[in-house]
Amino acid sequence: MKVLVTGGLGFIGSHTVVELQNEGYQVVIIDNLSNSSLDVLKGIVAISGKTPIFEKLDLKDKVQVQTFFKQHQDIQGVIHFAASKAVGESVEKPLLYYENNINTLVYVLQELEKLNVSNFIFSSSCTVYAQADVMPITEGAPIKMAESPYGNTKQIGEEIIQDTCKVNAKIKAISLRYFNPIGAHESAIIGELPIGVPQNLIPYIMQTAAGIREELSVFGDDYPTIDGTCIRDYIHVVDVAKAHVIALQRLLKNKNTSNFEVFNLGTGTGSSVLEVIQAFEKVTNQKLNYKIVNRRSGDVVSAYADTTKANEVLGWKAQYNLEDAILSSWQWQKSLNAV
Length: 339
Ligand code: WQD
Hints:
This protein is α/β, with parallel strands linked by helices. It has helices spanning 11-22, 38-48, 62-71, 87-92, 94-112, 149-167, 201-209, 237-252, 273-284, 308-314, 322-338, and strands spanning 2-6, 26-31, 53-56, 75-80, 118-125, 171-178, 180-182, 216-219, 231-232, 234-236, 260-265, 271-272, 290-293, 302-303.
């Protein structure tokens, strides 16, 4: 069974390729290497003992996409990760995000319309909820005005898929709305590879502890939360990867109840920034150097998932907790330092 994984050398994509190969799928990766490297491909092979087909290709080039699908008419499913994902950068460069996140999705869907079988898994984000009014957040929470072009591309992406599925019964789709994926494979051979100064909390903590960064800046401790810092649902990337395999199998076995379904992927537990720091210090037995600074614009106060639908309908539940994920991130950081 051949499965296409776009952005398959990225953080979540690479962990998903490992889980797909563990389940016996033949994987084809498309990646333009703009935010990843071929070392990740070597890591996937080292972990799973199998070599996926890899095509370096830019999905923004419609002709390249058409040529690719002509050569791979036997694809049974697509997991679409390829997108730019830095919230702050999207504010600075909106057109780059609309081109890279929307055009590519349209070109892939246009090719799926030509195939006989098409099962499509979309990489979405809790960002589509912006600041939800009620915690935990269910899939029925209202989709509010996006707070960044990145978040808007995920909202628009879901609408494009839903409209396509409405008129093309052959295309069945599941959109997975991740909360905050963190951590790394237990082998410490693959993990998150932030380019430049990390924008996200966990990689910044790891680089601070590794001495690469001077100290962590905590963006505000005057929010209306238990300790004044923002709350998020940090979910292990391997749990997120396994959910993609389960979602694909749901479509392959025609278990979906509509041809566009949405699931939140979270642990259901919210953790504040200070609680994450305390968890890091506990699992690594070392102090973290940090200071409180002003709030970061665009941050929501709190976001954590209601996992009922994923647990009961998708049949998936996160197996790792925050400390497991943090420890795996630290082991990955130490393996990077050892290079
Ligand atoms: C988490 C918390 C920060 C860095 C983003 C995207 C989301 C998804 C995950 C793609 C916040 C605080 C952070 C730092 C800090 N990406 N923080 N100091 O913003 O919840 O989500 O990444 O899908 O779409 O929006 O994650 O890790 O950046 O921030 O205090 O140096 O950590 O203020 O409260 P975020 P994050």
